[in-house]
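Record type: monomer structure entry
Structure origin: computed from sequence
Chain ID: A
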Amino acid sequence: MRPVSPDSELRSSLHIAMANLLIALAVGLLYSLSAFSGPPLGGSILEIPLKLLFLAMVVLTLKNGISGVLLFLMLVDLFFREPQRLRGADLGAVYDASLAMLLLLSTARFRTVARSTGLPGLRSLLKAYFAGRHSPGRSTSTVSLDAAFACGTKAVVCVLSAWMFLSLIPSDTDAMATFRLRPNLLRAIIVALILTAVWLIGSITLNHLAWRTLSPAQARIYLRGVFLHWNHRDLRMIVLRKLKHRRRSAARSVKADSSKSVPSPTQESGGVSVHS
C-alpha cells in the first residue's frame, strides 16, 4: 500500500469541500424556489424577501457556519406547509423533504471538511482550490462525484426511512377532540417518544457492552478523557490562573534580585569615605 502524501490528502479534501459547496448552493436555490409558497405566506409581500433571506442564510452558513437562522427558516416553512408534506404517497413531499435533508447534509459536510483543511475561511479555500498546485488530477477527479453521490444517497435514504416509519404509525383523527392537538402533531410526538426510547436503550446497551470489553488501563484512560471533556473550561481557567500567578511570582523575584544586586548611593559614598 502506497503512502498518501499530505498534498494529495489536501487535494482530496478540497474536492470534497467544493462538491458539497456546489451541492449546497444548488439545493438551496431549488429549495428557496418552492419555500414559503404555501398559505398564508404564499403570494404575500413577504414571500420574495423570505426567499432572498433564505438564500443569504445558506451563503452565511457556508461562510461562517451560522446554521441557526437557516434551521429556523426551514422550520417556519415546514410549519406552514406541514399539512401538504408526507401525506399518503405524495412523492412531491418526498422531493421537498429530500431537498431539505440534502441541504443540511451538504452544509454540515462542507463545514467539517473545510475545517479539516486548516484554511481559515471560504475565500482562502476557493483560492487554494483554483491555485495551480491544487489543480485536479485524474486520481482525484472522481472524488467530487463520489462525495455528491454519497451525500445524495444519505439524504434519500433518510427521507425514505422516515416516510416508511411514519406510514407505520396511523394518524388519529380524534386527536383534536381528545388531546387538543392536530393529528400530524400528535403523530410527530409519538414518533419522537419512540425514537427517544430506542436511542436510550441502544445507547445504554452499546455503552455497557463497550465498557465490559475494556481493560482496567483502558477504562482509566476513558474516564480521564470523559472527566477532562466535562471539566475542560474549569480546568483551563485554573491552569491559566496558576500560570499567571507563577509568571507574576517570577517577575517579582527577578525584580527583587536586581534591586539587591545594584548598590544604593549611600553604600557607594560610605565605601569611598572608608577607603580615604
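Annotation 1: Residues 57 and 70 are 6 Å apart (CA to CA).
Annotation 2: The radius of gyration is 31 Å.
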